[in-house]
UniProtKB/TrEMBL annotation:
Domain 4Fe-4S ferredoxin-type: 150-179
InterPro entries noted in UniProt: 2Fe-2S_ferredoxin-like_sf (IPR036010), 2Fe2S_fd_BS (IPR006058), 4Fe4S_Fe-S-bd (IPR017896), 4Fe4S_Fe_S_CS (IPR017900), Beta-grasp_dom_sf (IPR012675), Helical_ferredxn (IPR009051), SDH/FRD_Iron-Sulfur (IPR050573), Succ_DH/fum_Rdtase_Fe-S (IPR004489)
Highest taxon above the source species: Bacteria
SUPFAM superfamilies in the cross-refs: 2Fe-2S ferredoxin-like, alpha-helical ferredoxin
Enzyme Commission number, as recorded: 1.3.5.1
Organism: Corynebacterium sphenisci DSM 44792
PROSITE patterns: 2FE2S_FER_1 (PS00197), 4FE4S_FER_1 (PS00198), 4FE4S_FER_2 (PS51379)
Name of the protein described by the UniProt record: succinate dehydrogenase
Keywords attached to this entry: 2Fe-2S, 3Fe-4S, 4Fe-4S, Iron, Iron-sulfur, Metal-binding, Oxidoreductase, Tricarboxylic acid cycle
Parts of the chain that traverse the membrane: none
Record GO terms (molecular function): 2 iron, 2 sulfur cluster binding; 3 iron, 4 sulfur cluster binding; 4 iron, 4 sulfur cluster binding; electron transfer activity; metal ion binding; succinate dehydrogenase (quinone) activity
Amino acid sequence: MKLHLEIWRQAGPQTEGHFETVDVDDAVPEMSILELLDHVNSKYVEAGKEPFAFASDCREGICGTCGLNVNGRPHGPGKNTPACQQRLHQFDDGDSLKIEPMRSAAYPVIRDMVVDRSALDRVMEKGGYVSVAAGTAPDADTLHVNHETAELALDHAACIGCGACVAACPNGAAHLFTGAKLVHLSLLPMGKQERGLRARKMVDQLETTFGPCSLFGECAEVCPAGIPLTAVASISKERARSAFRGKDD
């Protein structure tokens, strides 16, 4: 399988980047996008060239580390699929692939396709946790959560923090990410203790770093975890609830 690649090359945050052309004539349709980059890097190392830098870890669609753009789309052409699970059988022999880092003002490039996504971490630091009394864990049956509520919370907890939603949004909004965290924690007993404070702090940080929601729903189309677009509505809902209930709830 022959592919024409244009891969982003950038030495550092303050360095101007460019696309480097690579022609591959022995790609295999079963390869993932990351395995294709591994294949290119192996040849570069053998030739004494500098390999391309990109981030990856589990390669099972769980960790959210493998964030990059393929032909202008976060992760690749497959809907709701991380880059590590995007296979080359989606492309035809002779196709061109433009591979670059996730693009957002909130994601400065560190090197090549590796970006700094710590802006998402700063949102989590403001309220993406629960405060519990230390000591013996309570019995499971003392925390009553019905099946429907538990399933809904788990659906939103599935967010892997890859940041594709931000890169897909023309405004660079992180509402799907933040909304998923707010919904998840607001539904479970452990998270209700600081619900209002959490909403205010996380939304304030969200609006400080990221852009406004575009209202088009591009984020849900690329989310590997399939977080529903309804999570975005929780931003306004939780903030309004916090203002109504007061600062202590």
